[in-house]
Structure formats: C-alpha cells, structure tokens
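Review form for a predicted model. The reviewer records the input and the model, then writes brief findings.
Reviewer: anonymous (R2)
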Amino acid sequence: MHSILNGIIFVIEFMAGFLWGDLLKIPLPGGSTLGLSPMVLLLIPAGIYYTLRTKFLPIRMFREMISVLIEKPDAKMQGDLSKGKLSGIQTLIVSTATRVGMGNLVGVVAAISGGGAGAVFWMWITALIGSSTAFVEATLAQLHKRKDSLYGGFRGGPAYYIHDFFFHNKPGEKLEEGVPKKKSIVAALFALSGLICWAGISQVIGNSVSSSFENAFSVKPLISSILLVLIAAVIVLRKNATARVLDVIVPVMAGLYFAMTVFVILTHLPALPHVFERIFSEAFGLRQIVSGGFAAVLMNGVKRGLFSNEAGSGSAPCAAAAADTDHPVKMGLFQAIGVFIDTIILCSCTAFIMLLTPEGMIKDLQGMDILQMAMNYHFGAFGKIFIAVILWLFSFSTFLGILFYARSNVSYLFGDNWASQTAYKIFALLMLFVGGLAQYTVVWDLGDVGIGLMTIFNLLVMYPLSKEALSSLKEFEEKRKKLNG
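Model under review:
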C-alpha cells in the first residue's frame, strides 16, 4: 500500500514538473537561458492568436466591455433571474471569485521576489493577451450551453463544447437535452481533470487560511479549519446559495483591497514615478539582459500572470455558460474584462503595496511574510490583521467559486442527480479540512496537474471551434453598428 502511494505521488510530481517545468531552453546573452514550459508554449501563442483574430479585442472593445458591465437587464430578463437564472454580472462575480486568490497575493510577491519589479509589466502583457483567450472560451460556452434541470437556469463549459465538437453538434441545437447520455472521451477527461484540480485547490485554500489566522490571531489550525468548513458547508450544501453569497463577498473584498491600495498610493505619491520607472526599466533593462536576469524577469511575470488569470484553462467558461443573456458575445466580453480586473487591477494592488515599501525592510523575507511586513509598514498592526482577513475572504470565495464550476463537470460525468453533486461537495469540504491541518506539497502539484490537463484538452478544441466565437463577434458588432446608426 505504501509503495502504491509513493508511486502515485511520483507520477503527480513528474506530471507537474513536465507541464510547468522548462521543456525548451533558449540561450540568452550573459550565459543565461530562457526556459519555456509546455503551459507557456500553449497559452502564450494561443493568446497572441486570439488577440490577432479578434483584432486586438481587449483594446479595441474596452468601451464595449464597460458598457455590458453596467448594462441593466430588461424587464423580461429580470423576471427570469428571479426564477434562479444568473445574470452576466453574477457569472463574472463567480469567475472573479476563483481568479482572485493566492495568485493575487503571494503569487505577485513571488513574481517580484524572483524577477524584480519588471515581472509586473509582463504580468500586465500576459493579462492583455489572455483577455482574448477568455473571450473566445466564454463565448463558446454560451453558444453550447444546456438547460440545467437540476439547479435551474443553464449549465455548460468546455466539457459541453468539446462534446459537441466530437459529435458534430451545432451551437444551441442541443439546448433542451441537458446532459448527453453518450460521452466524449476528451470531454470526460476535461471534466475529470477539473474535479481533480479543484480538489487539490481546496486543500491549498484550507492551509492558506489556517496559516494566516495562526500568524495573525494565534488561532489553532484545528479551530480555524472547523469554522471554515462549517461556514462553507452551510452555503455549498444549499441549492442556490453560492452565487448570492459571492454577490456580497467579492465586491466587498475586492473594493476594500483596492481602496487600501489607493490610500497607500496617495500617501506615497512622490515615490510613484520611481515605482513605474523600476517596472519598465527592469522589464526591458539592458542590465537584466547582460546579468542574465532577464529570463527570471520575463518568466516570473508570464507564469504568475497565467496562473492568476486562468485564461485558457477552461475554468471560467463553466460560470459563463450559466448566464442568461441576449447575446453570447456579451459573456465573452464579461470574462475578458474579468481578466483585466484580476491581473491589471488586483494583482497590481499587491505590486504597488510591495514596491512602495522600503526594500531594506523586506529583502530577507519570503512569501506572505513580505506582504505582511509591507502592510505593517503602511498600516501598522492593523495591516497584518487586514491581510489575514482579506486572505480568508479571497480563499473562501475561491472555494465557493470552484464548487460552482464543479456543478457542470459533475453533471457531465455522472448525470443529473443530487447524489453525485452532494458527494463531490462533501469530498471538497473534506479536502478543505485536511488542508487546514497540514501542508502537503503534493497537493499543490495535484492542482497544477489538473489545471495543466484542463488547458490541454480545452485548447485542443478551442482552435477549430473558435470560428464560431469569431462569427458571433462579427454578428454582434454589425448589430451594434446598425443600432448606433
């Protein structure tokens, strides 16, 4: 039994190392090399491809993104929403809940620690091209969504458009059928990879919360884990409580974090030009190239950007498909701006809090200790408490969000029944509890393997199906042009 367990751990660690390790190494001046992982080689070209195919959508249609974000649903849609259907803004909140987490806090700190201030610039670039990928996958999810007889409203995501691709189903023609009886192997593998990934993330969340509360309040991991699981259980085991709770948590936590950052910036305005000078000079600086540090700057920014915004992994489309909207492209625009909110705004918040802290105070620290010291510098003892609470909110909302994603994957694999839905929720709650008591590095690897496999299966089908999303975008723009005269 022990040897079997060791074998499983070896396979997980090997797969994580292969998917996220350096597959290709490019020599650079100064004797260093630029290492490219399979995930970077898949996601960056995909982002560039979709950015070109959508004619630089994140920039060209930014006003349109804002417009759909503030658009109010008409009277008919308001009535539908009261029957359990979700609005576009609600699905954006769900996807933002899962994007906003450790990547925005510790991930950004790690990127800057490993690659310097210049890594922030490459996170921004990654987000811009990732927005186009997020647009395409979310639009496809809307085009291939099903009616959800179990929860009400709609369900969908990559498992469903992958299924339709292999069974040659056209967008929308299977809307009434719910869960297909005959499964696609690739779609089933995507769904299974997602459930594995989210189980791993549940343990990571539990560990992050218990560690931060122990550091900030001296609360024992057992107590904080029990409380976290009980609160989560009350929400996730109820039929449709998740989206309503996230409607409250996400705007509050993101708003508070943004407001705190604005305060830090306003109280350090004279230092702001130097921060931007550092970001841009270290992103392109000859000093980094000659010293061999450019690779670290570039790859820390790119990898952390990909991990944070999740564009291309197929997670967010599970939420995008649930929206009740009058045009699929609107959900694509919602998810595109979701990447902007996550990386350009919230990740930048952490970057500025850190870069506006004297370097000497944090140079010998690592991980959350860096961020807690930075917050302590800006806000005193309150800063340490604030970060612990914000991390709890970020992590808790991530857990709720991934269980919302899991709905459609569980349904695809096991059909429309409460038994399988409840079983996965209980399993995730158990993982949350176990993670709070002990840190298992293999669990981080398990999450990396899951999201890596999801990305491969998702991108495999996105390329040939993207013409549907691009056609829908063209039709949407022509319709808007006629309406605007």
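Findings: The CA atoms of residues 357 and 377 lie 7 Å apart.
Further findings: The beta strands are 24-27, 33-36, 146-147, 154-155.
Recommendation: see findings above.
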